[in-house]
Every structure is written in C-alpha cells, then in structure tokens.
Batch of 2 targets.
Target 1
Amino acid sequence: MTPGRGLGGGPGSTDDDAIPVTVLSGSLGAGKTTLVNHLLSNAGDRDIAVLVNDVGAVNVDYDLLSSDDLPAVGVAELSNGCICCELRDDLERAVVQLADGKEFDHLVVEPSGISEPGPVARQFTNGPAAARYRMDAVVTVLDTPQFLGAFAGEGTPERRGPGTGAREGSGADGGGDGDDGDDGVRPLSDLLVEQVEGADVVLLNKADLCDEADLVEAEALVRALRPGVETVRTEHAAVPLDRVFGVDLYEQRDHSDDRSHGAVHDQDDGDGHGHDDGDGHGHDDGDDHGHDHGVHDDADDADDRGDTDHDDHAHAHPDEVYGVASFVYRARRPFHPERLAAYLSALPDAVVRSKGTLHVANADQRLRYSQAGPSVRVEAVGPWVAAMDETDRDLYRANRRDGADWHDEWGDRHTELVVIGVDLDEPAVRERLDACLCTDAELEDRTAVDPTEWFPTGADGDGDPVAVLR
Ligand SMILES: Nc1nc2c(ncn2[C@@H]2O[C@H](COP(=O)(O)OP(=O)(O)OP(=O)(O)O)[C@@H](O)[C@H]2O)c(=O)[nH]1
C-alpha cells in the first residue's frame, strides 16, 4: 500500500494510475442496471469493470450483466447483504482482487437499491481500496415518477423518522404505508432523499413517463436537496458517457462537513440521526444514513466480520432501517399465463420490486420479468434450451455443462424470482404465486393454454419481444 494513503490516509489516491470509480445509487428499480448496460454498450475504447450488489439471495443483476454480449472486462458480484455494511470487507477484497487480476480503466459499482451511496464511496477514499482507486463521482438514478409521487407539492423533501422531525403523510414512499418511524423503521422515501443528497450527478430517469412540467418540478426538488448538482434527463438511462465518466466531481466536493472523510472511525454521538449539516434542512451530514451506531449494538456482528479497522461499528443495516425484506420464489412447474398476468398486474403495494425469470406454460422463450412499483415489464430473451431442436440442445448443453440444473421433465425451464418489499406478507405472496401455477389438468391439456395474449413470444417470433403488463 502506498504510504499515506489507504487506512486513515485521507482522501483517495491521486495518482494518475489510480482507477476512477463511479458509484451508482438509486431506489429499487430506478434503472441502475439499465444504466450499467448502457455504459457497457457505449464504452468505446474504455475497459470497464463492474461490481454488483443485489438485494436477496439471487443476484439477478449479476446474471444480466455477465452475459456474453456485454464487453465488461470484469464483473464481480456480492449478494445477500449490503456492501455499505455487512459486506464491506468483501467489497474491499473484491475490488482489490479485480485490480490485481484484470486491466481496466474504470470501475462501476452498482450497490443494491437500498444502499446509501456515502458509505460505499468512502470505501474508495479510506481503507485498502484507496491505494488503487479514486472516486470519480456518485451518480444517482431517479425513478422520476416515483420521486415526484413521494415528494411533489410538499416543498423541500426532508427525511422523516427518529430524530429527524417526523413529517406526516408524504404520499408514496416506495411501498410501505408511510411509516412514521415510531418503531425505528424509516420510510423508503427517506432513502430517496439521502441518495439525492449524496449525488454528484442525478439522472432524472424514466423521463418518458413524465411531462415537461414534471421534469421541471423534479429538477427543482433535486436542486433543493443538493444545490449545484448536475442533472440529466434520461430515458432508459441513456446518458452521454462524458456526463458521468471522468467528471472528477467527487473529489471536488466540499467534504469539510463529512465527518468520516479521511477518518476511518466515524465519530457519532449515538443517536445516529440528528447531525445537522448546516444546510437548513436538519438532515444528517451524510455518513450515518441507516448506520445508526448504537441503535443496532451488536458486538457479535463486529466479531463475525473479522478484526478490521471498522469493526467497532455496530450498524443498523438499511434493510432493517427501512423495513425491507426479500425472498426468492422458485418453481419448475410452469405458470398459467392468464392467472399469472392477472396477479402480476395487481401485485400488492407491499411488493416494491420483483424481478427474475418466468417459466410460462407453452412459452418457448425464457421470460425476463421486472416490476418496479407500478410498472411491470416482461421481455423474451431467447429460447429455453429445452425448446431447441435436439442437435442444438445437445450442443448447447455440452458446451454449457449445465447438467446440474437440468430437470428430468422441464430441462432448463424454471422460474426464479426475487421479491422485495416493505411489510411484505411472504406466505401470502407465495400462496398467490403457487395458485398461478398450472394444475395437473391444465398440464395434461396443454393445447388449451396460449401464452401469447399476455406474454411476449420473442424477438424471432412475429410478436413483440416485450410486454408491458402494467
Ligand atoms: N419506462 C421506462 N422504464 C425504464 C426506464 N429505465 C429503466 N426502466 C425499466 O425499469 C425496470 C427496472 O430497471 P433496472 O435497471 O433493473 O433497475 P435497477 O435500479 O437496477 O433495479 P434494482 O437493482 O432492483 O434496484 C426495468 O423493467 C427497466 O426496463 C425508463 O427510462 N423508462
């Protein structure tokens, strides 16, 4: 490690050979993976490595990004935890390993939608990663309609919850029922505020779902939260790359009020909330978002993570702070298309985000499913191997060595969904999904089941490869 940097060495590397890092931020389903795809597809002669961290035990984003079509030089995944807290050491290890193993000139980090960008960015300015990397910018992707739904017409958004001066009824909060923080659980809208406050560049994404007045209002709200921040309106996160790469905005920030910048051990008075940064909103200063040292005072956690410099932190993880829970639903038996389409079009509000792969009866295509708030989209992404003719199938299977996942009856056809929500009634959602599976009688009379009215038939077919169910 270069002396004077790394552990406690102050702001990150300034060497020319330090690899610039873009940390993405944005709510569940805002468009972060869409942005990573866009960046990779338009990388030109840049060699980009990507690190993804997903909510839940299955890293859907990793599967999307590690496809052969995308020219990332390295894709590392960290699942089932949050890289701003319990996977912090893993993140350090992963990025140092990436730098050791591959040549690349930019790292993009996509944390889960319930991560706060500040603690992730600071891992590149303090600690082992600072010797190899330097922070370029935090780019926050906003689901603009969701952001407006949460805050429009309310003046400057503020965080609610313990110690922040609770506000009542801020409208949509990304899923929950507008928790007032009495039980220590904060609404997801708080996280939106923090993600904007921690940004160097804000993409007003899903601009196609907004009119001009919406976008002007969203820009004003963003600037109220983060004066001077760069904003870019985007559809499907299609931002010119020079607006987000090589901008060197993070280091130019005024970090003087960031207590942890340059100091590994964040000092905290224990309430984790009431540090006014002088911006007039009474907000935290950006380093203890969801990391309420002292609230979740679990010494065992620290022991489990090993004996490192930050183990004396007792973190309240974002999933606890925001009451976010997730589970994985798996099935081999196919869904009945009509019942499934009906359920997916009317998911309970508690389901904030769900995504994954669908096996729909009589559909020869793998269906990639993505729901974010009110939007539900299904895309056909190529045939199941089991639907190929025998020669292709044997060839494909021989090359892929995926025999372990091959089911006697269904081959590679399967459903795997990650369901993320606030106040989620997991058994009820599972039961409803189970009820959408084909019955034995329906499987016997397959001719009666036609998915094409609800689900896409694929790029090669006559129909549209994408279906918007809601
Ligand atoms: N209409 C519209 N849909 C979009 C836009 N950008 C992304 N989407 C869709 O929004 C859904 C979520 O996009 P992702 O890129 O997976 O979102 P994410 O932020 O990576 O999601 P998580 O990693 O789960 O937090 C997908 O169905 C996208 O196709 C946009 O600008 N307009």
Target 2
Amino acid sequence: MNWDDTTDPDTDAAGERLVGPVADREDQAVEAALRPKDLGEFIGQEKVREQLDLVLRAARARGATADHVLLSGAPGLGKTTLSMIIAAEMGAPIRITSGPAIQHAGDLAAILSSLQEGEVLFLDEIHRMSRPAEEMLYMAMEDFRVDVIVGKGPGATAIPLELPPFTLVGATTRAGLLPPPLRDRFGFTAHMEFYEPTELERVVHRSAGLLDVEIDTAGAAEIAGRSRGTPRIANRLLRRVRDYAQVKADGVITREIAAAALAVYEVDARGLDRLDRAVLDALLKLFGGGPVGLSTLAVAVGEERETVEEVAEPFLVREGLLARTPRGRVATPAAWAHLGLTPPRAHTPGNGQGDLFGA
Ligand SMILES: Nc1ncnc2c1ncn2[C@@H]1O[C@H](COP(=O)(O)OP(=O)(O)OP(=O)(O)O)[C@@H](O)[C@H]1O
C-alpha cells in the first residue's frame, strides 16, 4: 500500500485522531502482526466470507486462477487483510499497489508484465487510478493481454504483450465512483459492512492474545463499543488502553480500566471524540438542535467547513445523532439523549418537526 499519496481529512484537517479510520504510522507498523491469515480466522462479514470461500474453493478445484474480486467498504474494515487471505488460500504470491501510485499506463504495464502465473495483484483505491491506466486494465482483466505503445505520434506502434493469468483484487471506499466497464469486469464483488459490537469484541480478544495482553470480557466489550464498527480502530484503542493498564494498574484490562483510559483520550462510550462532541454540543446548545447551516456550525466549533463535513459528520449521521436536511443540520432526539440534555418543547415528537427527518 502506498501510504504517502493519499489525502486523509482525518489527519490533514483535524490532527491525528484516535478514532480516525485510516492507518497511521503506528498502525502500519503493528497491523501486519494482527492480520488474520485465513478465512477461518477472519471475524465477521459472514456473507462475504461464505461467498468468497465458494469462489476460492471452486477455483482451486478447477486448478484455475480465481476470478477478479472487488472489495468495497470504508477504511479499516479489512480489505487489505482479505486480499492477503485470498492469496494465501490460493497458495499464490501477492503484489500490493494502489491507484494513486499508478500515474501512467506504463507503470501498470510494468507491474502486469512482471506478474507470475496465478499471482494476486491488490490494487487499493482503484477508483483513483489514471484514465489511461484504467483502460489498459480493462484489457488485462478480460484477455490477459496489454498493448504496450512504443514511440510517439504517427509513428507510435502498439506491441501486444501476453500476460499470465492473475487475480486482480481491487479495493475501493467508493464503489459508485468506478466506471461501469471496470466494475463489470470483476467476477465477484463484496461489500464490507461496519462490524457489530460483538464481532469487534472478538477482534479485541484475538488481538489482545497476539499482543500478550490480559483482558476480561467486559474490558473487551468496552473497547468494542467505542470502536465505531471498525477493527482498525478497535486495535488502536486496545493499544492505548494497554498502555494505560500498564502504567496505572497491573496491566490487566477490565471495564473500569478501559473506560478510564479512553476517558483520558476523550473517546466517549459511543466512540465520539472531542471534535464529534464539539459539533453536537454547538448544535444543541447554541442552535437549539438546528436546523443550522454547515458553515455556521463550523465557525461555532472553530473548524474548517470541510473538517466538520468530512471528518465529524459521517459518523454522527451513521449513528443517528445528526441529520442533514435541506434546511441545514439537525440534531436527532438521540443526540439530546447522548449529551444528557433535554430537547426544548419545539423539538419533541408530534410538533411538526418530524418532516425534518423525512417523516
Ligand atoms: N475481520 C477481521 N478480523 C480480525 N481483524 C481484522 C478484521 N478486519 C480487519 N482487521 C484488522 O484491522 C486492521 C485493518 O485492516 P485492513 O488493513 O485490512 O483494512 P483496510 O480495509 O484494507 O483499510 P484501508 O482501506 O485503510 O487500507 C488489520 O490490522 C487487521 O488486523
């Protein structure tokens, strides 16, 4: 994966966030050790696992290379991990690159022509590849062939190059941005969902075992509940809680230790951090729950408009704490409850405000 060429609003605009979904330097250093190695070890995503298992078993039984696979879903849900599992299950080597790293068709031709038979090519952020590279990929995926252009202008010639059969695993956070001709060339598309708290609890237990950290069931549940449906965040919170347990207690993670540690890092019981809460706080206390325009809300919390929109809002909307309406941002009843505040009478149900939530 190419970590340097991605712009991440979580780190660019709001400093490093403990609950940001994109990998930071420390994540990159430790994630390799925590990745499940086969489908049996991969937690959750039952449907995807079952379907992929069939695809891979069938290919193995035929002695064929597996079909191309498209994985879509938010960062940190396990797309890279699954691509490595696909290679491992097929007994094939894997090459890892990313859309932004492929600027020219020639870059892609160089990678494709050096693949071994059956190799898995993992192309992260496939929606960010350049157009000419994308067109070259169509032919490579379908016919295992590329045309390498030699020379320029009227004298340029296309030299066809045969490729060994390979499996492309494309990953994207935005499946909707992929041009249909590219999307159609994948034999299997899997959409990865956010994880349930009980699944994240298993992720935390498994990682704690690998990191040699003692944790009880309630401690794991506490961390899971604050991990925003994302294994990467669960693993990161676990590491911070482990530090706290070592320094402030006897190293064992219990519910109390997890809660106290994450209070230090300002990650609340639902996984909201300081920025998320500042947005909700302003919306409720300054604007009576809205509707209020995004720019006004951003000024009120002293952040850029983009930071509020791209960093804080998606999770608040997903959690059902904030709604985007044509008239502006509106807090839901759950937001009032979460901050322990009572909505003014005008915001209680049955007062004509229901239409703001599309009721
Ligand atoms: N199903 C799972 N079971 C256990 N651990 C998981 C699972 N999914 C992800 N993880 C853990 O979460 C971390 C992040 O996963 P991964 O790098 O595969 O995410 P990703 O979707 O590829 O993220 P990005 O899009 O940012 O590259 C990994 O270290 C892995 O240990």
